[in-house]
Specification:
GO molecular function (chain A): phenylacetyl-CoA 1,2-epoxidase activity
Shape of chain B: globular
Number of strands of chain A: 2
Largest sheet of chain B: none
Number of domains of chain A: 1
CATH superfamily of chain B: Ferritin, core subunit, four-helix bundle
Order of helices and strands of chain B: HHHHHHHHH
Number of strands of chain B: 0
Largest interface: A-B, 47 and 51 residues
GO biological process, one term (chain A): phenylacetate catabolic process
Pfam family, one (chain A): PaaA_PaaC
Number of helices of chain A: 13
Shape of chain A: globular
CATH superfamily of chain A: Ferritin, core subunit, four-helix bundle
Protein name (chain A): 1,2-phenylacetyl-CoA epoxidase subunit A
Number of domains of chain B: 1
Distance between the termini of chain B: 33 Å
Organism (chain A): Micromonospora arborensis
Radius of gyration of chain A: 22 Å
Strand content of chain A: under 5%
Structural class of chain A: mainly alpha
Order of helices and strands of chain A: HHHHHHHHHHEEHHH
Oligomer: heterodimer
CATH architecture of chain B: Up-down Bundle
Structural class of chain B: mainly alpha
Radius of gyration of chain B: 17 Å
Helix content of chain A: 55-70%
CATH architecture of chain A: Up-down Bundle
């Protein structure tokens, strides 16, 4: 409640994407009103019914039959997303204690708190597929499920908080807006809520960079340095190039995924170029230029070998991020045990009173 | 202390240092829900700190705003009670600190809401609702930990024993202040007595009552907290953020 009191510059980004989220929300409502055909007939092929619902742009709901691979894909993707929110708290949380004004401290604290909320919300969406949050957390801590590689990079200056908001949250929104139309209802609904808050975060990040880029020479240098370090890792957030992407084709058919990695990456680049100009910051790509024929910007691809190294565990902060999460989990064990013991005692007392 | 400036400053510093300490828990809490709850309380305290420090700056009339007061004073100029600057310790210590602080802040802000100074009254009216939630939250954890497992009981009693001596400073008499802290002691004692009893914990009998925070003589811990909080702001004099 204290985190929202900053003014938004008139040229702040995010309007177009937010419009898409709202359109997806309207579509979701319309689909709900149309209603689905009552359910499969007793002798009907369940797979055919599933395909019909997906093709009709209706939503699959938790109690519906679904192919095992669809369920597994969704669990993997939603869990990975939830883990990313929880691990993603660390790089930005790193600057809460040193935020340079009380207003910025409040905004950042509220933002990191939002990420925890997104994590919980997404774990709940995954739980509708028949897996518990405890199991998912265990998979994360054991390194058997991934989170977004971007959070394995360090936040070295205050401007990194701005760059994460502008670029990382920006890339996340470009990735996630199509998920608002995902065929699985609980995930689509979660994404609508998450995207709305993320677009707000992106504007906050943009505003931090805008202030720095129009500040002292040292602040300007800080902002440029952050954009220089975060640009390519942000491009890599869209995943490997389409030819190398292992999960894409099936996910597209199931309408879990709507656009290819490269299409989304292009959309992100095109969105950022103009915003960078307004910010007065340089995108660190000498080959970035408008291609009239494609009606899009040509740009340098991120280093996909580096992406693979980071995914496989050898990024700058992979070990720290997981060690931090494990430590919080194990150091909190006695507290969770106490809460469970206390709740059990209270329940026992209530039973005695009732008896 | 004398006058509304010192009073607003002391309360604002209590809230600011509390927020800084609680925010240290972000990404470290024992449960994800608790991460969110602690951030909520930190945000409330930070919000109150901003209102109080802004008002203190206006009362002083020397052109200092909330950030000048937060970032450009040294530890000897801070007026917070020692209780809030103590390190977080384990979760039991943090909950002991939060519970005792909230049991003081709730009657304080409630009394402030009825005081003659309109600005302070408005701040008190807003903050007392938040304090009621902080007190609920702290009391619930004191009970859960005190009456949970053997391990949690041991830790919670140790936390209460360690933190308790620092509560006395909160109630040092100051008849000239908008609310005399000494008048808040009965409400505090009542709250603490009933919660500790329900939590199967005992109130320490120690006569030791460390103090000095309100006069700017702090523990060794505050300067480190401020060094971290202020480092970036001070590295860029005059910059806007």
């Amino acid at each position: 409640m204290y985190g929202n009191d900053f003014s938004t510059p008139a040229d702040a980004p995010g309007g177009g994407l937010l419009g898409e989220v709202e359109a997806a929300e309207a579509e979701l409502r319309a689909a709900a009103q149309r209603g689905r055909r009552g359910g499969p007939a007793p002798d009907e092929d369940l797979a055919a019914y599933f395909a019909e619902v997906v093709d009709a742009e209706q939503k699959i709901e938790p109690r519906d039959w679904m192919p095992d691979a669809y369920r597994r894909t969704l669990i993997r993707q939603i869990a990975q997303h939830a883990h990313s929110e929880i691990i993603g708290m660390q790089p930005e949380g790193n600057w809460i204690s040193r935020a340079p004004s009380l207003k910025r401290k409040a905004i950042l604290l509220a933002k990191v708190q939002d990420e925890a909320g997104h994590g919980l919300y997404l774990y709940a969406a995954a739980e509708t597929l028949g897996i518990s949050r405890d199991e998912l957390v265990r998979l994360l801590l054991d390194g058997r499920q991934k989170y977004s590689s971007i959070f394995n990079y360090p936040t070295l200056s205050w401007a990194d908080v701005g760059a994460i908001g502008w670029l990382v949250d920006g890339a996340a929104i470009v990735n996630q807006v199509p998920l608002c139309r995902c065929s699985y209802g609980p995930y689509a609904r979660a994404m609508i809520r998450v995207c709305k808050e993320e677009s707000f975060h992106q504007r906050q990040g943009y505003e931090i960079l805008h202030t720095l880029a129009h500040g002292t020479p040292a602040q300007q240098a800080m902002a440029q340095d952050a954009v220089d370090r975060w640009w390519y890792p942000s491009l890599a957030m869209f995943g490997p190039p389409d030819g190398d992407s292992t999960h894409s084709a099936q996910s597209m058919a199931w309408k879990i995924k709507r656009f290819s990695n490269d299409d989304l990456r292009q959309r992100f680049v095109d969105m950022c170029v103009q915003q960078a100009e307004i910010l007065g910051l340089r995108i660190p790509d000498a080959d970035l230029r408008w291609n009239d024929e494609r009606q899009a910007y040509d740009y340098t691809q991120p280093d996909y070998d580096e992406l693979l190294r980071v995914i496989s565990g050898d990024g700058p902060c992979n070990r720290e991020r997981i060690a931090h999460r494990r430590a919080a989990h194990s150091e909190g064990a006695w507290v969770r045990e106490a809460a469970a013991a206390y709740a059990a005692k209270r329940a026992e007392q209530r039973e005695k009173v009732a008896a | 202390m004398n006058g509304p400036f010192d009073f607003a400053l002391a309360l604002g510093d209590d809230a600011l240092v509390t927020a800084q300490r609680l925010a240290e828990w972000t990404t470290r809490a024992p449960e994800m829900e608790e991460d969110i709850a602690l951030a909520n309380i930190a945000l409330d305290q930070l919000g109150a700190a901003r209102l109080l420090l802004s008002y203190a700056g206006e009362l002083e009339g020397a052109g200092r705003d909330e950030d000048a007061l937060a970032y450009l004073r040294d530890d000897r100029e801070f007026r917070n009670a020692l209780l809030v600057e103590l390190p977080n310790g384990d979760f039991a210590v943090t909950m002991a600190k939060l519970f005792f602080l909230a049991a003081y802040q709730l009657p304080l802000y409630t009394a402030l809401a009825g005081c003659a100074d309109e600005r302070l009254a408005a701040i008190g009216a807003k903050a007392r609702k938040e304090s009621a939630y902080h007190l609920d939250h702290g009391a619930l954890w004191v009970k859960r930990l005190g009456d949970g497992t053997e391990e949690s009981h041991r830790r919670m009693q140790a936390a209460v024993d360690a933190v308790w001596p620092y509560t006395h400073e909160l109630f040092a008499a100051d008849p000239a202040a908008p609310v005399d802290p000494a008048t808040l002691r009965p409400a505090f004692d009542e709250t603490v007595g009933s919660v500790l009893a329900e939590a199967t914990l005992t109130r320490p009998e120690s006569g030791w009552a460390p103090a000095g925070g309100r006069a700017g003589v702090h523990t060794e811990h505050l300067a480190y907290l401020l060094a971290e909080m202020q480092v970036l702001h001070r590295a860029h004099p005059g910059a806007k953020w």
